[in-house]
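In response to the reviewer comment on reproducibility (Comment 2.3), we provide here a single inverse folding case reported in full, input and output, so that an independent group could reproduce the run without further information from us. The C-alpha cells appear first.
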C-alpha cells in the first residue's frame, strides 16, 4: 500500500516537472523576438530585483529562446519568481533555472522581519484595544451577574424544603451557565469575525482531544453532579472513605472538602468518592456501640450480667434504654467475657463520650457489687524444679524418712 502511494507521489512530481519543462503551446516561426532583446529585458528586471535584495549576481544566458538563469536568490519564493518572469517573457521557449538559495544568515533582514511583525502586532492590538476593553467589561458584568443570580437562587431555594446538596447543585450549575454565556459574548465582542456557532463548532471539533486531555476533570465533574443530585450524604455528615474519616464541609462540582477528626482538611476528588466504598456515619441519628467486659471465673454469671446492664442503662449518653444488650460471649484466658452493646449519638464525639461514661459506670458498679475484674493470670510449669532450688512434697517426705533413700523428681510443679 505504502509503495503504491510513494509511486503515485513520484509520478505526480514527475508530471509537475514535465509540465514546467514542456514547450510553449505555439513556437513562433516568423517575427521571432531577438534573443539579445529578451536577455536585455530580463537583465533589467533582475537588476531591479537585485536592488531589493531578492537576487545576487543574476546572469541571463539565452540561446534560441531557451533562457538559463544563474546566480543566487535569497529565498525559494524569489527563485521561483525569477523563473516565472522569464517564462512569461515574450519569445521564451523554455527556462533553465540554475539559481541557488543564499544560505548566509542576514541579521539585518531578520531584524527587519521581526520589527515588522512586532509593529504589525502592536498596530493590531491598538486597533482591537477598544474591543478588548469592551470584552473585559462583559467579563466583569458576567462576574457580577453570576454573584447576583447565585444570591437570588440561594435565597429562593432556602424557602423550599430541599436537600442542601441539591441546592448547591442548582446554584453551581446556574453560575456555570451564566459564565459560559458571558464568555461567548465576550469572545464575539473581542473578535467580530467569531460567532457563537463557530465557537461551539470549534469546541465540537476539539472535543476528542479535550476529552483525552481533561479526562480526570470531566470525570470528577460528572461525579460531582451525581453526588450533589442524590448521594446519601450531605454537608455536615461524618463519612469514612478509605483512610479518610471526617466531616463533609463542602461539596463542589469537582471535589469534596472533608475536615478530618484531627483538624486537617482533606480535598477528595469526587470520582474517588463515587467509585469507592463510603461509610456514612451520621446517616441515622444513632449508632450501636460495643465493648468487651470480663469478670473472674469465681463470680456468678447471671449476677454479673444484671449489674453490667443496670450500669449501662443508668448512663445519660445511652439512647434507648430497653435496647441495652449484655451477652456472655466466651471463656477467655482469665475471665468470662461479656459483649456489651448499646445505642448512642452517631457523631464520633458522641461515641467517645458515651464509651467513656459506660466504662466508668460498669467499673464503679462491679466494684460496688464486689465482682472482680481479673488481671490476666499466667501459670509457669517447670520440668525439674530441684534445679531451681524447689523440692516437691514427696521428695521432702522421703528425705526425712530415710537417709538412704534417693530423692525423686516430680514431673511437674506449678507456681
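Designed residues, in position order:
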Amino acid at each position: 500500500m505504502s509503495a503504491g502511494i510513494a509511486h503515485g507521489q513520484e509520478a505526480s512530481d514527475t508530471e509537475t516537472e514535465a509540465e514546467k519543462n514542456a514547450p510553449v503551446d505555439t513556437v513562433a516561426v516568423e517575427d521571432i523576438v531577438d534573443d539579445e532583446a529578451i536577455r536585455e529585458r530580463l537583465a533589467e528586471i533582475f537588476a531591479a530585483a537585485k536592488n531589493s535584495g531578492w537576487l545576487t549576481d543574476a546572469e541571463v544566458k539565452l540561446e534560441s529562446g531557451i533562457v538559463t538563469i544563474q546566480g543566487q536568490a535569497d529565498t525559494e519564493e524569489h527563485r521561483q519568481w525569477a523563473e516565472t518572469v522569464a517564462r512569461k517573457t515574450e519569445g521564451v521557449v523554455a527556462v533553465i533555472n540554475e539559481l541557488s538559495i543564499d544560505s548566509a544568515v542576514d541579521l539585518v533582514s531578520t531584524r527587519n522581519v521581526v520589527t515588522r511583525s512586532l509593529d504589525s502586532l502592536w498596530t493590531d492590538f491598538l486597533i482591537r484595544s477598544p474591543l478588548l476593553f469592551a470584552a473585559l467589561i462583559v467579563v466583569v458584568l458576567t462576574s457580577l451577574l453570576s454573584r447576583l443570580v447565585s444570591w437570588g437562587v440561594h435565597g429562593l431555594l432556602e424557602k423550599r424544603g430541599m436537600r442542601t446538596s441539591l441546592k448547591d447543585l442548582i446554584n453551581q450549575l446556574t453560575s456555570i451557565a451564566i459564565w459560559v454565556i458571558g464568555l461567548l459574548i465576550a469572545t464575539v465582542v473581542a473578535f467580530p469575525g467569531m460567532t457563537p456557532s463557530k465557537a461551539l463548532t470549534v469546541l465540537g471539533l476539539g472535543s476528542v482531544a479535550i476529552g483525552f486531555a481533561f479526562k480526570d476533570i470531566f470525570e470528577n465533574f460528572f461525579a460531582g453532579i451525581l453526588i450533589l443530585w442524590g448521594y446519601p450524604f450531605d454537608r455536615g455528615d461524618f463519612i469514612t472513605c478509605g483512610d479518610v474519616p471526617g466531616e463533609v464541609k463542602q461539596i463542589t462540582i469537582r471535589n469534596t472538602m472533608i475536615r478530618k477528626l484531627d483538624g486537617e482538611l482533606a480535598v477528595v476528588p469526587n470520582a474517588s468518592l463515587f467509585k469507592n466504598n463510603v461509610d456514612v456515619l451520621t446517616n441515622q441519628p444513632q449508632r450501636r456501640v460495643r465493648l468487651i467486659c470480663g469478670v473472674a471465673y469465681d463470680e456468678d454469671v447471671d449476677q454479673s450480667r444484671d449489674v453490667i446492664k443496670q450500669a449501662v442503662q443508668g448512663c445519660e449518653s445511652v439512647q434507648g434504654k430497653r435496647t441495652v444488650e449484655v451477652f456472655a460471649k466466651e471463656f477467655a484466658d482469665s475471665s468470662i467475657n461479656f459483649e456489651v452493646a448499646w445505642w448512642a449519638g452517631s457523631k464520633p464525639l458522641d461515641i467517645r463520650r458515651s464509651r467513656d461514661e459506660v466504662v466508668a459506670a460498669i467499673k464503679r458498679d462491679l466494684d460496688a457489687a464486689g465482682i472482680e475484674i481479673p488481671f490476666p493470670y499466667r501459670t509457669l510449669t517447670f520440668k525439674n524444679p530441684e534445679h531451681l532450688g524447689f523440692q516437691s512434697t514427696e521428695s521432702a517426705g522421703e528425705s526425712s524418712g530415710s537417709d538412704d533413700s534417693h530423692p525423686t523428681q516430680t514431673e511437674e510443679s506449678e507456681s
